[in-house]
Design a protein that fits this description.
- The strands form 4 sheets. The protein has a 5-stranded parallel sheet.
- Helix content is about 45%, strand content about 15%.
- The chain is globular and about 70 Å long.
- The protein is an alpha/beta fold.
- The protein has helices spanning about 5-20, 30-40, 55-65, 80-85, 120-130, 165-170, 180-190, 205-215, 225-235, 250-265, 270-285, 290-295, 300-310, and strands at about 45, 70-75, 85-90, 95-100, 105-110, 130-135, 140, 145-150, 175, 240-245, 290.
- Strand 3 (about 85-90) and strand 4 form a beta hairpin.
- It folds into 2 domains: about 5-210, 3-Layer(aba) Sandwich (Rossmann fold), CATH 3.40.50; about 220-310, Magnesium chelatase subunit I, C-Terminal domain (Helicase, Ruva Protein, domain 3, Orthogonal Bundle).
- It contains 13 helices and 11 strands.
C-alpha cells in the first residue's frame, strides 16, 4: 500500500473496528483511543469499575491484530523480574542465560496495574519510554510495534498503589470507561446470556500497523492550531486550581494524537475538532490539582472544560 494513500489508515481502522464489534458492544470512544495510541506508538490506561469488559476489550483488540500478545496480572507480590526477565544459570553448559519476561511482546496487557508495588510498577518505566529493558546490565530492545494497555479499578483502595505522576505521564491516553447505556445492556445480555462464545480473527498485520504509524508524518497541522494547543496548555498551567500543569511531552502527545484522529477520519490535515476530541483523554491524567480544588470536588476534566471556554478557536 503506497504511503501517500490517505485511505490506508481509514481502511485499517475500519477493519479493526468491525472485527472488535463482533465481541464488544459499544465502547466506540475507548476503541478509538486504543487505536490512536497504537498509531502514535503510545500507551493507554483504561480506568473503570469491575465487570465492564476492560480486559475483554484489550484481549479482543490483541486477537484482531497479528501481533505477539502477553497478559500480566499485577498483584502485590509481583516482582520486576517477573515482568522484564532474569538471568539464570544453566547447569548443562555452565553458563548464564537470559530468560526474557512477558514484556517482550508487541502488545502487553498490564491488568490491574495499581495492585502491584511501586517498585514493580517502575519496571515498566524504561520499557514504556525507551522501548528497551535492562537485565543484569544487559540492554535488550523490545519488538516493534510495542503497546502497553493497562487497566485499573478506581473503586477499590485497599491493596492498591496509586500510580505516581512519572508513571502516568508515560501513558499517551487515560481512557475513562463508564457503565453501558440501557440499550447496550440489553445487547450485552442478548449476546452473552447463553452458551455461544464469540471470537474474532486476525485482520490487521504487523506490516499494516507499522505502515499506518508512518502515515502520521503525512498529516499537516497549521501554526495557528499549534498556537491553539499551546494557549490551552498555558491557560491550564496558570489556573489557580492547578498545582502542576502540562509538560512538553503532553503538548507533543496532543499534536500526535490529533494527527492520528485526522487520519482515522480520512484527512491529511488537523482541524480544531480533532484537537478537542483528544484533549481530555490525553491531558486528564497530567493535571495535578491543588488540595483545595480536590476538596471542592473539582476534577481535571472541569479544568479542561473551563479552559476550552476561555481559549479562542482559530478561524
Amino acid at each position: 500500500m503506497p504511503s501517500n494513500d490517505i485511505e490506508f489508515v481509514y481502511d485499517v481502522w475500519t477493519k479493526l473496528k468491525n472485527e472488535v464489534h463482533k465481541v464488544i458492544v459499544g465502547m466506540d470512544k475507548v476503541l478509538e483511543e486504543i487505536f490512536i495510541s497504537l498509531l502514535c506508538e503510545g500507551h493507554i490506561l483504561l480506568e473503570g469499575p469491575p465487570g465492564i469488559a476492560k480486559t475483554t476489550l484489550a484481549k479482543t483488540v490483541a486477537s484482531s491484530l497479528d501481533l505477539t500478545f502477553r497478559r500480566i496480572q499485577f498483584t502485590p507480590d509481583l516482582l520486576p523480574a517477573d515482568i522484564i526477565g532474569v538471568r539464570i544459570y544453566n547447569q548443562v553448559d555452565g553458563k548464564f542465560v537470559t530468560k526474557k519476561g512477558p514484556i517482550f511482546a508487541n502488545l502487553v496487557l498490564a491488568d490491574e496495574i495499581n495492585r502491584a508495588s511501586p517498585k514493580t510498577q517502575s519496571a515498566l518505566l524504561e520499557a514504556m519510554q525507551e522501548r528497551q529493558v535492562t537485565i543484569e546490565g544487559e540492554t535488550y530492545k523490545l519488538p516493534e510495534p510495542f503497546l502497553v494497555i493497562a487497566t485499573e479499578n478506581p473503586v477499590e483502595v485497599e491493596g492498591t498503589y496509586p500510580l505516581p505522576s512519572a508513571q502516568l505521564d508515560r501513558f499517551l491516553i487515560k481512557s475513562i470507561i463508564n457503565y453501558p447505556s440501557k440499550e447496550d445492556y440489553v445487547s450485552i445480555m442478548t449476546m452473552y446470556g447463553g452458551y455461544t462464545k464469540y471470537t474474532v480473527e486476525k485482520v490487521i498485520s504487523k506490516e499494516d500497523i507499522l505502515e499506518a504509524q508512518r502515515m502520521i508524518d503525512n498529516v499537516t497541522i497549521s501554526k495557528d492550531l499549534l498556537e491553539y494547543i499551546a494557549d490551552i496548555i498555558k491557560t491550564i498551567d496558570q489556573d489557580d486550581r492547578v498545582k502542576w500543569g502540562i509538560s512538553p511531552r503532553g503538548g507533543i502527545y496532543v499534536t500526535k494524537a490529533s494527527k492520528a484522529f485526522a487520519l482515522m477520519n480520512r484527512r491529511d490535515f488537523v482541524t480544531p475538532e480533532d484537537i478537542k476530541r483528544i484533549l481530555k483523554p490525553v491531558l486528564n491524567h497530567r493535571i495535578i490539582l491543588t488540595p483545595e480544588a480536590i476538596f471542592k470536588g473539582i476534577t481535571p476534566i472541569d479544568v479542561i472544560d473551563d479552559t476550552l471556554k476561555q481559549v479562542s478557536v482559530p478561524v
